[in-house]
Amino acid sequence: MAVIDKIAWIHLVEGAVLSTRSKSKDVYYLPGGKREPGESDVDTLVREIREELSVAIAPDSAAHLGTFEAQAHGHATGITVRMTCYTADYAGVLRASSEIEEVAWLTHADRHRVSPVDQIIFDHLRAATSLR
């Protein structure tokens, strides 16, 4: 079984989680992406968030929140995505860049608008944090 290894940033503000929608995609994803050869989780987190949202993640503040797996959205049946999630502080102003079309603050009520693995993460966040 093929597994897509991804790293995601969980950023909660006032009960909503930061999400992004890439150009030509029909669902929202937590910001982040695939690791490049030789990168650690935190290296990937820092690079992906800089590329997608133009902010600088503070590497020393990164804290593992959980790892989640589900069928990969838009891929053949049996291809799963493993999303390793981190919280972290950042510096800068959040803005969509690179392949990101839109930045949105979503709540659990928006669960149907995100990828399958993100739905699992939204459920976890609602149970464990302040996600509305």
Automatic annotation (TrEMBL):
Any Pfam family from its record, for instance, is NUDIX
**Location of the Nudix hydrolase domain:** 1-129
Q: Which domain of life is it from?
A: Bacteria
Please report which protein family the annotation says this sequence is part of: Belongs to the Nudix hydrolase family.
Q: What is this protein called?
A: DNA mismatch repair protein MutT
Tell me what organism the protein belongs to: Phytohabitans flavus
